[in-house]
Design a protein that fits this description.
Length: about 325
């Protein structure tokens, strides 16, 4: 069971699985885009969780583009109870709601739409001037930051026009079997639903491991948004998804190319420093009592993301 709004009323027993026991991710609701003429430094704000892979995409993108001074950030508590994502500034790594002074992220959503129906998710791109949510879809937030805010950053380009179709194809190809696939596996409520999801997940991981044998990044020799989207799932895999979500056919550390690829990204400026494994593990192991009822956070396995990777022998380099 998860929490969500229905016509502006907070409901704590929404079931995200269908009759076949398959997890179905609810589509995001705020899908506006920033007008380039309104992309001003200081006007926009991100609400994120360090624990969430979707929010982590926005944080990596913001860092790679050098937008830290242009777009401010607030961070919610990794533990999510029946009230949803909460601001707990006394906890390490967490902040207040510096924009609206709310206690819960759900208050941000009904501030934007008093009759809102849907889940309260991160990331959220907030317009301080208009006092509303612009977008809460991570893929679209990445593209907004990469394109509309480019002139406010360091000049890096994570979605070059000549590669954009290939980037979008890669994002499409990894989303359902991998990014969402770990959730489809972990939240499956029937054996058939689990078997289908876990098989698709590892078929996709095997495929991309093969692709990465001869190229440094998912779209050839350029680090792009597709790599960010893959990274935020892979970096959580061995520590969380392998055990907590029963994605245990294989560890990422057992892949010939995905494992050094992950280390390469982690060691690239913008990736490792936005990765907060303490928040990640606390969130997953304490927030899903149906999956992990004792809410015990495991000690390991603590992969060595700093180990040499030799991926720089392949053509390509980070954008900055």
């Amino acid at each position: 069971m998860v929490n969500q709004f229905i016509d502006g009323e907070w409901v704590t027993d929404y079931d995200p699985t269908n009759e076949a026991g398959e997890f179905e991710r609810q589509p995001t609701s705020f899908r506006d885009h920033v007008d380039p003429a309104e992309a001003e430094a200081g006007r926009y704000h991100l609400y994120v969780s360090y624990a969430c892979p979707w929010a982590h995409r926005a944080l990596v993108t913001r860092k790679l583009l050098g937008l830290e001074d242009a777009i401010s950030v607030d961070v919610v508590d990794p533990y999510r109870d029946d009230g949803g994502w909460q601001f707990t500034p006394g906890k390490e790594g967490c902040t207040t709601d510096s924009i609206n002074d709310f206690d819960y992220l759900r208050e941000v959503y009904v501030e934007a739409d008093p009759e809102y129906t849907g889940r309260v998710t991160v990331p959220v791109l907030w317009d301080k001037q208009e006092g509303t949510i612009v977008n809460n879809e991570s893929r679209e937030i990445m593209r907004n930051l990469t394109t509309v805010f480019a002139e406010l950053g360091n000049g890096a380009d994570l979605a070059p026009v000549d590669l954009r179709d290939d980037i979008d194809d890669a994002l499409d190809e990894i989303y359902e079997p991998i990014n969402n696939g770990v959730y489809r596996t972990g939240f499956a409520e029937t054996q058939d639903a689990y078997d289908d999801a876990v098989s698709e997940l590892f078929d996709a991981l095997d495929y991309w491991d093969g692709v990465l044998a001869d190229q440094r990044y998912l779209v050839g020799d350029r680090l792009t948004e597709a790599d960010i989207a893959m990274y935020t799932t892979l970096v959580r895999f061995d520590e969380v998804y392998h055990t907590h979500f029963m994605c245990n056919h294989k560890l990422i550390r057992e892949y010939d190319n995905l494992w050094p690829y992950l280390r390469d990204l982690y060691q690239t400026a913008g990736f490792g420093e936005t990765t907060h494994m303490d928040h990640i593990k606390e969130h997953y192991y304490t927030t899903h009592p149906d999956v992990s009822p004792k809410r015990i956070i495991p000690m390991g396995p603590d992969p060595d993301f700093e180990a040499p990777h030799d991926r720089d022998e392949l053509a390509g380099e980070p954008p900055v």
